From TrEMBL, chains A, B:
The keyword Transcription applies. It comes from Streptomyces asoensis. The keyword Transcription applies. Keywords: DNA-binding, Transcription, Transcription regulation. This is Transcriptional regulator.
Length: 135, 135
DNA sequence: CGGTATCCTATTGGATACTG
DNA sequence: CAGTATCCAATAGGATACCG
């Protein structure tokens, strides 16, 4: 079971990316992933494929501009696929790729965290604001 | 061990927050968490407390403005604590709260994902751009 | 249905200089 | 050391109207 030396070490070294460095490309990628629209779109697609209008309805209040922009970027990044069915009228389905499903595990976790811990955060805000009132 | 019925069900119902809804407060919270600076600060503090200047050095290229702004917001939200030691010169330490450490597990996972899957994303971009050149 | 195009405002965030 | 304050350029993102 100790066959993880040279090959694994090279593997480690090869992905010597560090998102803490401003000029590292992974820093920009982290910036892209750290986007509310990305979180919502990827989370929405986690259970299964959806059409454009389904997504628009699910992500309440998203403008067509932001929805399309986010979908295009995620398609380009290999997170999801866009499938056009040339019926009348047209039908377009969006589906996570294996890479996207992998990412979805993390992003839905963040979204769920926000939902599950909002009360604690809210309480912390009230405490902070109370302590810093007129002090 | 089967004492998780009524109380737990109410617990579930009580946190009926849905971040997909624009006007749900958790949507705003998700927006806050979906921030590159938040990810980096929380990830940087995951191993242990750091001083202001340590953070500035670790998160290469962050401006004092963004660093302070991010730290204040996270402090208000109960994610981290700020401890001033009135020595000469002053010493200020930032440390994750239990809530923050919990969140850090998720955010460092996203940061690590960016580092570990950048090559795949980059390859996808090249493919996308090649397919959409002059087409 | 599934977008695109344009306009316009608000916010983000870097650079810079100064302070207790 | 650990910020604060100010200015300003760039970007995000909503509203709206139109198109294949």
């Amino acid at each position: 079971m100790a066959t993880r030396t040279a090959a694994q070490q090279r593997e480690q070294a090869r992905s010597a990316y560090d998102a803490f460095l401003r000029d590292c490309p992974t820093n920009q990628l982290l910036d892209r992933l750290s986007d509310k629209w990305v979180s919502l779109v990827v989370s929405a697609l986690a259970p299964g494929p959806l059409r454009y209008s389904d997504l628009a309805r699910r992500i309440a209040g998203v403008s067509p501009k932001m929805l399309t922009q986010t979908l295009r970027t995620l398609e380009r990044d290999g997170i999801l696929t866009r499938t056009v069915t040339p019926s009348v009228p047209v039908r377009v389905d969006y589906e996570l790729t294996p890479l996207g499903r992998n990412l979805a595990l993390l992003l839905t976790a963040v979204k769920d965290w926000a939902e599950n811990h909002f009360d604690e955060v809210h309480a912390a805000r009230l405490r902070y604001d109370a302590d810093n009132t007129g002090a």
